[in-house]
Amino acid sequence: MTLNLRSQLLPEAATGPDTGMHVHLGPTAGTDTRANRLEIHPGVEPVAPDTYVESWTTRGRARAEHQGPLQLLEYPEVLFASWQGPDHGLRTQTEQAYRDLLGACHARGFGHLARIWNFFGDIHGEEDGLERYQAFCIGRAAALETLAIPQAGMPAATAIGGTQRRLVIYLIATRTPATALENPRQVSAYRYPERYSPKSPTFARATRLDTTDGPLVLLSGTASIVGHESRHPEDVSAQARETLTNLRALHETAGRHLPPPRWLRVYLRRPEDRTRVAAVLAEHFNDYCPGPVVQWAQGDICRRELLLEIEGVHA
Ligand code: 3EB
């Protein structure tokens, strides 16, 4: 059976579909209580002026559940889930969050993660003698190890530092596996040398799902990393070009017949870099018609020298 799943960036002004998962940047103002929607506030700020809402929809009736930090929105073919809680004691909180989330997915027959996003505060701060991103990686690995997820079954992922002290994780799970994709220009994250983290990050560079609208490629957060090393530490334009080269290589490996990027989100460490990065994007997507819709967010990338990261969807 081909999956029904759609992803779009909608202008904030539009109300959008009445069902599905919706991701809002900016302050966590007023909880939306519509029963058939899962509203996510990852706690990162948009870079003005545009404000998009990321929308994920699928067919069928929804069943919503709310259990403490966990929120679920279950459809016949897709499960959307989120976990929100404090980010103090990040290592244990992350392990608990992943156990809660994966337990809920498995219990409902959604044994495969296609995509997961992770946000928490003070990503370069220290916790138990480790950088907090590393503490996060250890907690995540501990939860995933007990489930013994094969490397070919890793989800696409994003991990970004926001300004709020809150751990927000949300995901898309399916009953049948997505295809994990790796990038020939980059060492797989789960094979990074130990110096980046005592436990390697566990994600695929992208996942591919076959949907009723055709192939859907879910791009992990992608940065200016070649092999396993960061490139162009002081130069945001060069980092943007390197990142786009990585994304192009991933597309070519996955198959040129696959659709182009429909939307991208650029996380900038310094919002003032937007103009320079936008110029690089405009040049790169010059031949694409239409080019991707782009959303800009302020976020801290897990390595200090990295000034930007790009995620998105091909559809
Ligand atoms: C990288 O390529 C950049 O730890 O889940 C990107 C996407 C990055 C996801 C994660 C980390 C994660 O290594 C950082």
Please identify which CATH superfamily we are dealing with.
Answer: RutC-like
Largest sheet descriptor? 7 strands, mixed
Number of distinct helices: 4
Radius of gyration: 18 Å
Query: What is the H-and-E element order?
Result: EEEEEEEEHEEEHEEEEEEEHEHEE
What structural class results from the helix and strand content? alpha+beta
What share of residues is helical? 10-25%
- Just give the CATH class: Alpha Beta
Number of strands: 21
Strand order of the largest sheet: 4-20-19-21-16-15-14
Mean pLDDT: 95
Q: Which ligands are bound?
A: 3-(2-carboxyethyl)benzoic acid
Describe the protein.
By secondary structure, the protein is of the alpha+beta class. The chain has one domain: 60s Ribosomal Protein L30, Chain: A (2-Layer Sandwich), CATH 3.30.1330.40. The chain contains 4 helices and 21 strands. α1 packs parallel to α2. The mean pLDDT is 95. 3-(2-carboxyethyl)benzoic acid binds next to β12 and β16.
Write the layout of secondary structure elements.
Blueprint: E1 6-11, E2 20-24, E3 37-40, E4 45-46, E5 52-57, E6 63-67, E7 70-74, E8 78-85, H1 90-107, E9 112-121, E10 126-127, E11 130-131, H2 132-147, E12 156-162, E13 167-174, E14 179-181, E15 206-211, E16 214-222, E17 225-226, E18 229-230, H3 236-254, E19 261-268, H4 274-284, E20 293-298, E21 308-314
Parallel strand pairs: 2-3, 9-12, 19-20
Antiparallel strand pairs: 1-5, 2-5, 4-20, 6-7, 7-8, 8-13, 9-13, 10-11, 14-15, 15-16, 16-21, 17-18, 19-21
Helix pairs in contact: 1-2, 3-4
Bound molecules: 3-(2-carboxyethyl)benzoic acid.
Residues 118, 157-159, 189, 201, 203, 220-221, 223, 225, 302 line the site of 3-(2-carboxyethyl)benzoic acid.
